[in-house]
Structures are given as structure tokens and as C-alpha cells.
Target: Zinc metallopeptidase
Amino acid sequence: MIILAVVLLLVYLAVTVGLGGMARSRFDAALSEPARGGKSSARLVCRALLNDAGLMKVGVIEGWFKGWSSYDDEKEHVVLSPRLIESASPGALALAALQAARAEVARKSPGSWRRRRQALRWSSALPGFGFVLGLLFLFARRLQPTAALWLIAAACAVGLFVFFVTLATDLRAVVIAKKSVADAKVFADSSDLELAQSVLDVAPLLDLRGPVASTRWLLLHALPMSKRS
Model:
């Protein structure tokens, strides 16, 4: 019975950690290619903003994250282009990354991202909590082995439910970003300073606490001195 409980817990961890790790590794691979024209700072800005906004999980299913360049009407998701990352200004890239999050925040309350992070933490902790609780009841002879296994299975099921609901909501944020990505293309020809200011104005809505200082530093230092002056 204990072996079955351990196997159940390992399956849960494989699903949640595996999906999250797959999205993060594919996204990092798309952004870690050698930059042309000194655009490595733009990659840092884009990655920092997406990570802070809780959008790193978007694109798990097909590994969509390669860049925010166009919208595929047929498949209903954003298609990335490394060419955009190489040619666009840091401000334009940052705005393109943040527009999707801003669209989602506008649709919900400002605290939705914080609640979603808390839900993910609880969902990841539930199976472990159920596993320990089931074993304690089992060894204390308060529950039969079958009942203890059902308790662990229920904790894993609730954790998976919260995980996939959160994932579906994040995928919805990409669909909402259709107009935002188009706007970012237009804004790419604008002033870098204006773009950076737009990002900084929106950042507080996303509940960016610790990382917001480093994001602000990256944005401002990624701009050419001539344009900042």
C-alpha cells in the first residue's frame, strides 16, 4: 500500500514538474541563442518580465515560446520569431512581452496573479501533505490502508486540478494577447524611452515585488544613452 502511495506521488510530481520544466527549458532555449546587434539585454528584459508576470508556463503543450511576433488564427496562439528578438529594440520587446500580461490583468483584478501563484504553491504542497497525513493515520491505525491510499489520491487529484486550471488560464492570456502583439509591432518604430516608460507604468499592476527593481534596471540600461538623453 505504501509503495502504491509513493508511485502515485511520483506520478503527480512527474506531471507538474515535467510540464513546467518543459515550458521553461523551451522558452530559455529560444532566448539563449547568440544575439545579433547587442540585443542580449532585450532577451534578459523579456525573460524577466515573463517570469515575473507568471507567464513562463504558457506554451507548455507545443513549446510555443520562441518570440512574440505574430498571431496564428488557425491554432489560436502567439507565434514567436527569433528575427523579431534580434531586430527589435529592448523597449519594444519588453512591451510585447508585457502587453499580454496587461491584457489579462485588465480583464481581472490586479491581485489575480498573486492568487494564482498562491494556488500553485498550495497545489504543489497538497500531495506531499496528503501523503504524510495518510501515512500518519495509517501507522496510528486510525485509517485502513485503502482509506489512507484514497486520502493520498484525493490530495493528488486536487493538486492536479488546480495545476491544470492555472495552466488553462495562462494559455487564455496568450489568446487575449492578439491585439497587444499587433500593437507591439507598431510600437517597435517608436521611441525606446517611451516604450520603457510604458512598461514601467504597467509593472506595478502585475504585483512585481522583488524582481521589479532588476527589471527596471535592465530596461533603463538597455536603452542607448542618446535616446535616454
